[in-house]
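Q: Can I borrow your eye for a moment on a structure tokenisation matter? Would you mind producing a protein record, from residues through to fold? Write it directly below this note and I will take it from there.
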Amino acid sequence: MGYLIVLKGLLTGLLLSWYLGPTFFTVMETLMRRGAKAAIFLNSGVWLSDISCIIVAYYGASELMGPIQNNLIFKLVAGCAFLFFGLSYFLRKPDETVKPLGGVGILILVVKGFALNTLNPGVLVFWFGAMIVAVSSLDLHGIHILYYFATTILTIIIFDLLKILFSHKLRKIVTDNLMTKLFRITGVVLMSLGIFVIIRAFWH
């Protein structure tokens, strides 16, 4: 039973590792511009966000999801935040000065990754749904839930690190023109998500 739970968590993590969400483009942009170390710190904020969402889903998400999902102010703030991040990337130039990676810089990267992931309404919805599936369909309870989600997150972290380390080798062939295109793609993805969230806020 134990190894089957770990296997299911591994498969779930592998599937999620192929998902190219808005945070993926942000991580790749950070990698190409500031290096693997900066990208890992940014991604660590995303991982912390996922872990936080899983904890929220486990401890009473049914009471929290309703207010969050139906809160117009929360959706507008999230949408505007994505628009701001997206616009800043879209207007960014490759020759901008890159700040040294220090203590405050590391904290900013972690907080940025956490915010980008947490402000995406779909993330909490996804982990809440995953919790329901784990309890109802997979019939997991107690420590088995911990095994399942711990394996899932660990798999995601390992594959994210592998993607960062592999992509880091491509930095030598990256040109200013390619960086500009990456900035534009990242900006468009984030702004599109922001517009979508704002439209959805008024749609309901």
